[in-house]
What does this fold into?
Amino acid sequence: MVLTFYLRKILEVMVIGIAVAALTTPLSIRLAYKFDIIDRPRDGRRMHNRPIPRFGGLGIFLGSMTAMLIPASMNNNIRVAMLGGLLMYLLGVLDDLKDLKPIVKFAGQVVIASGMYAMGIRIRFINHSLLAVSHGSQAVIMLGAGLGFFITVIWIVGITNAVNLMDGLDGLAAGTVAIMSLSLAYVAYIHGIRLGMMPVCVALCAVAAGCLGFLPYNFSPAKTFMGDGGALYLGYMIAVLSVISPLKRATTVGALIPMLVLAVPIFDTAFAMLRRFMKNESIMKADKAHLHHHLMAAGFGQRRSVLIIYGIVGIMGIVAVLISRDLYKDAFFLAMIALLYLGIIIVPKQPKKGIKSIITADPETVQKEAFVMLLNEERERRKQEQKQKKEQKDTETEEDRADVNLQAGLEEETEG
It folds into this structure.
């Protein structure tokens, strides 16, 4: 009976979120043109070649926030998270309008995350996974106030920026957040009644619904972009809801579940920071070497690149579900498959010597080198063809000469 109640709420949230996002996104497009919130392809990092509105995050925000009013009536922390979501969205909109400096935007995110900690949304403990598995018990490490504050802020700010960095191809951020939200929602649903996670499950469905209502306008070829307002809001909401949820108590290694679901954006962000550090560049400097850039450089195109990343994110979502049900061996093999695909994307076709060369490789440079290699191969192939044709022609000429000599000899004998 209780599950039937929550299933009805999930259905209501999905319908409301999708409908509101789908109806308000066209409004955001008109507002973007009116206030000149347009993304123009000014540099080589842009994947589009025409001006596109970038205020679509309004549709996501209104859709998910409207739907989230339902679970907000069940849980005070969700109401607090909605307040932080409003502030993060406004910070992103300000960045869309004024193009804030990275350090200013980062400071704003830290302030919002700190406010959430002060209002009770915090990571209080973690599970010592290895000890828990080996002893078959809940091995919990309680965090002090200082460490808890640090980890909470780093988690919220880190995931917020990770999702923002993924917003590089049409439909990529919206689709991946929808998959991640639904994966976390399903884990929460599995353990919902026992651990009091159903309101969080419904809230995560609201976030996914906002993304799904927006996605038809954002999938390639995109009619609008979500902008920093939408990207920062989505990253913040999925980070905060994973903190609110008592997912950490679902299983002995349940603390890994949000990290597994968010593995792809976490990996992409960590790899970007490592790459910039090894190139002696600022870790906040934008570049064109993220996962989706590697896929584009490999020639997959926007749609196929996005679908490939969808698949990897989906695999990691299944891994999280399996771990929440203590199916560690199955989860391990699926995780290895996902890591294999990530490795294939990152490592170029003709890898250079040394790990550093691979990590710091620029996808465009690798693409050019591969093109040059193919061009040289084509030139060599044509040279071989010309050589063979010349040899064949010389052979035919010698045979013709032999035939002429033979014919002359026969004619002389006949005359004689």
